[in-house]
Fold these 2 entries.
Entry 1:
Amino acid sequence: MAVILLVEDDSGIRSALSRALTERGHAVHWQPAGLPGLQSVIDDRPDVVLLDLGLPDIDGVQVLAMLRSVSDVPVIVVTARDDDADVVRALDAGADDFVVKPFGADHLDARIRAVLRRSSSQRSEGPIKVGDLIVDPKTRTASLEERTLELSRKEFDLLLALAQRAGEVVSKRDLLAEVWRQPYGGGDRTVDVHLSWLRRKLGETAAKPRYLHSSRGVGVRLAPPSGV
Ligand code: CA
């Protein structure tokens, strides 16, 4: 459950999103414009802000810049199609992620959970231990049985995302959203390829898994080998 602030001037989108997010267990506050939105960040202390870029009083990117001077709350920018330039400006101004209209509520919820996990992992930066595997988000290093693993940037991000939810099956869709920041989903193959590279570096195979356990059609789970 998260406290979500929705800053959106379109009342139809607002009520649909409020309902969908409330159904998924979140508490939703909303504001129809930038200035009351900024006030609400201070008053309501949301966990996540969903910020529409096209607002009636101030441009959303400017709202974001002002917001960043008072808060480091995760912000997901909501934008209409065909304004890539605005998305780039928003990411430069400190947005954590973006979704393009129209989008489904499940997709948005996955992005909300992803930014929340990222912000909580930044807060608790201690190394994560899974059996003899240690993943350290602070130094961005990982070791297995006291041997340092040589991982590419994406391999590390993938391993960290799985380590943060060790023991849980993580869907490829969530991994794509979290590690690759893919706004449109798809691209399971990308995940598969990186998983196979990661497997090789962990010294295991899909047929004989030790740490990386695939659940066909569901996702993948990082867990210590049985007996450790
Ligand atoms: Ca708008």
Entry 2:
Amino acid sequence: MTIPQDPHLCIDLHCHSTASDGALSPAELVERAASCGVTHLSLTDHDTIAGLAQADAAARAKGIMLIPGVELSCLWKSRTIHIVGLDFDPETDGFRKALEHQNDNRWARARLIADRLAKLGIDDLLAKASEVAGGDVPGRPHFAKVLIEAGVVRNAAQAFKRYLGNGKPGDVKAFWPELPEVVRWITEAGGIAVLAHPRKYQLTATKLRELTADFRRAGGRAIEVSTSGQSSGDMGFLAELCRKEKLLASQGSDFHFPGAPWCELGRIMKMPDGLEPVWHSFRRPVLNPAPV
Ligand code: MN
Ligand code: MN
Ligand code: MN
């Protein structure tokens, strides 16, 4: 279930454009957000801020407040975890270098997968997989598609079973940095680190509490309490975790493409009362308009 937020203040702090794996350009995304009634938006593409300039220009034209954002991948106990960075200074030198480093890591992994699958004799495997990924860094599902197209396997399940799955040649773990490092990048750029969609990692409640505590110790300040496709039970659990760890509460649709009825810009379940919203701590705090 999704319900619209307060029409005077509609805040969505997690979404994607074509700068990463979203379907809409940054300008189209902002226009869609405006038509959905969003007043405050953060574009949080995976490991890049390349879409921010275009999004900001569109946001100014539409009268939306754009908050600088990004979604960074990192490792915690060998699992890939996503950390959203909000309200940082995109001009910070160290931060830009960190993003380049992140991008280099993604390509290095893709290159290693392609090298390991070289014996299959598919010409230009990396280039083909990248094409499947829309010109971006390919991951294992993209390699699987190329293997299917080349007639090496019949379907994705077979591609994973023989070449890409656990323990197979193409099983290259992501080269992500550890969680504290990513939190530090965001913090040093003046931003707020947010633990993204905590229920998506399929962690037990105990593990999730452990992750949240480690995240806070590393300097993380907020968790996403409300995100798309989450039950109210999940949200209740996260709200409790948020209070217990004394973290700020964030919300975002994680919108990637139009047409998914469970996920629309600005349509996020209202967070329970009694939490401290992350937007009160922005450099220019977003506060509820005074009642008229
Ligand atoms: Mn994505
Ligand atoms: Mn994510
Ligand atoms: Mn996301």
